[in-house]
Specification:
The chain is an alpha/beta fold and 250 residues long. The chain folds into 2 domains: 166 residues, Rossmann fold (3-Layer(aba) Sandwich); 62 residues, Orthogonal Bundle (Conserved Hypothetical Protein Ylqf, Chain: A, domain 2), CATH 1.10.1580. The chain is 40% helix and 13% strand. The chain has 9 helices and 6 strands, in the order H-E-H-E-H-E-H-E-H-E-E-H-H-H-H. A 6-stranded mixed sheet has the order 3-2-1-4-6-5, sandwiched between helices. Helix 7 crosses helix 8. It starts with 7 loop residues before the first helix and ends with a helix. The protein binds guanosine-5'-triphosphate (GTP) and magnesium ion. The site of magnesium ion (MG) has 4 residues, from helix 5.
Length: 250
């Protein structure tokens, strides 16, 4: 399933992000820890390749902790082939605010040591990523107040929003950016399943079957518990029927 979802506001968002990058000390790319490969935008990688990068694996309360740790190692090793330094951390909105903030600010300071509290110049960070990965939620978590609008659908943030933390750090939350054509079918299915593409732009049945196949293979108990099924269905089609019946759709 290839997906073409590149509405007009994406063109604007790309321009906004390209203009914002030069004035920043650290780029914070938020990716969804349930789909780290699929949720990395190659366009952002290209636009930001000269800047120090902090990869934040968001929604870590929903992902497999061992796999998240393996991805953190993977990103930190990528520092050797990227021109600028890279760090990676996992964050969740269920974490205590001060813990999340310490994890993110320590990583930012290590990436831009000449900026921040020990300098007259504050650290400036751009929080970027594909839609609906949790950029505004991270902004709110770091600020400790609900300053940026969040919702469980892609395309909520429409313009750059600057937030100044009490240590002087300036965060910019920007709209989510997708790339023009998602031609890898598996990436498209992951993005649709993870909520980065709006429901109106996807064919629901293949996305549901793709998700059920993953859960049956890797997390069968979560599938049974999550949908309160009586038993484990033998294959994705049966599972879709069982879930549909359970939810009163069949
Ligand atoms: N469980 C869980 N949900 C999260 C987490 N972070 C964000 N969310 C949810 O994910 C949804 C999207 O969050 P946003 O912060 O609006 O995402 P965004 O990246 O700013 O989205 P756009 O502005 O549309 O690009 C919301 O329903 C959040 O509550 C997290 O760590 N754990
Ligand atoms: Mg947002």
């Amino acid at each position: 399933m290839s997906i073409q979802w590149y509405p007009g506001h994406m063109v604007k968002a790309r321009k906004m992000i390209a203009e914002a990058i030069p004035g920043k000390d650290v780029l914070v790319e938020v990716i969804d820890s349930r789909m780290p490969r699929a949720s990395r935008n190659p366009v952002l990688n290209e636009l930001g390749r000269a800047k120090p990068l902090l990869v934040v694996l968001s929604k870590s309360d929903l992902s497999d902790p061992d796999i998240t740790q393996a991805w953190i190692k993977h990103f930190e090793h990528s520092a050797s082939w990227r021109g600028a330094p890279v760090k990676a951390v996992a964050v969740s909105s269920t974490q205590e605010r001060k813990v999340a903030r310490r994890i993110v600010t320590e990583a930012c300071r290590a990436l831009a040591p000449v900026r921040g509290p020990n300098s007259v110049k504050p650290l400036r960070a751009l929080i970027m990523g594909i839609p609906n990965v949790g950029k505004s939620t991270l902004t709110n978590l770091l600020q400790g107040r609900h300053v940026a609008k969040t919702e469980d659908r892609p395309g909520v943030t429409k313009s750059e929003q600057k937030v100044v933390l009490d240590d002087g750090t300036v965060l910019s939350d920007v709209p989510g950016l997708m790339w023009p054509l998602i031609d890898d079918p598996r990436v498209g299915l992951c993005l649709a399943l993870g909520g980065a593409i709006p429901d109106t732009a996807i064919d629901h049945e293949p996305v549901a079957l793709f998700g059920l196949e993953i859960f049956l293979r890797r997390y069968p108990q979560q599938l049974v518990d999550g949908f309160k099924l009586k038993e484990l269905p033998p294959d994705p089609d049966e599972a879709l029927d069982a879930v549909g019946r359970k939810r009163g759709c069949l």
